[in-house]
Specification:
By secondary structure, this protein is α/β, with parallel strands linked by helices. 20% of the residues lie in helices and 25% in strands. The model has no long low-confidence stretch (mean pLDDT 97).
């Protein structure tokens, strides 16, 4: 059974870390309603949804993906590049420890979950302002005993790797070509986002389904033409905090 760990929206989300989007007012009540609808979409796609309480003093804590990488055999607790986000991991680790043995990234390494895309036994890791060489090297060592290969990826002009590329089918990627190159993904079928929707590359696979923001209709049309069926959700307030659909959950097989 699929399990999805999520966390409620913090009342302080308006003070979130931002890198590539301007700061605008966030409607917290609307963000909470949108997050609940996102959780409902997870449930409809077969997930048992765990909801952690909000961390009132941690504005970005709803974005639980960034503090862990959950694999079949083990979970790796990350060390976020934004120091303000490092306290987010403790409560997630307490929950994950019921399902997986935990490894962890240590200083001076930094690594965020949004920079990691798993495809089979390969973990593609973006070199970003939030993920450094030490973090990537530590991840490579930690996962070598489990048979995973770590593939660093160069990227520009975006917060995380999964802002620029996500897996939409077993052999198919959705890519923002201005932020990440094709050369790192030889052998994949590539769907490019619509150029007028620069933030449209982030999708969340959930079993055989997929969750996708409703605000990118032209890219959605490209996905539909490729035979990919999606469940759309409105995450406009979460996007103001530089969030996306992958950020708000940690999805994995298993029960405690």
């Amino acid at each position: 059974m699929l399990t999805a760990i999520t966390r409620k929206v913090s009342p302080s989300m308006g003070q979130c870390e931002l890198s590539y989007v301007p700061r605008v007012d966030i409607d917290i009540a609307l963000a909470r309603r949108q997050h609940y609808q996102y959780q409902q979409a997870l449930s409809a796609l077969g997930c048992r949804v765990i909801t952690l309480p909000a961390e009132d003093e941690l504005p970005d804590a709803v974005f639980v993906e960034d503090v862990a990488l959950v694999l079949d055999e083990v979970a790796v607790m990350t060390r976020p590049g934004a120091a303000s986000r490092r306290p987010e991991g403790a409560s997630v680790a307490a929950t994950l420890s019921q399902y997986r043995n935990l490894l962890s990234i240590q200083a001076p390494g930094t690594l965020e979950g949004g920079d990691m895309m798993r495809v089979g036994r390969t973990i593609y890791v973006g070199r970003s302002a939030r993920t450094n060489s030490s973090g990537i090297e530590q991840l490579t060592r930690l996962l070598s005993d489990y048979g995973y290969a770590v593939h660093p990826v160069a990227m520009t002009e975006c917060l995380h790797l999964k802002s620029a590329v996500t897996l939409v089918a077993d052999e198919t990627l959705l890519i923002q070509p201005e932020w990440v190159g094709r050369d790192d993904f030889a052998g994949f079928k590539i769907i490019e986002i619509d150029p007028g929707e620069p933030h449209a590359a982030n999708t969340l696979r959930v079993g055989s389904g997929m969750i996708y923001p409703s605000c990118f209709p032209r890219t959605l049309e490209r996905l539909s033409k490729a035979g990919i069926t999606v469940t759309t959700v409105d995450v406009s307030e979460l996007q103001k905090a530089e969030g996306a659909v992958t950020c708000c959950s940690l999805i994995f097989e298993g029960e405690p």
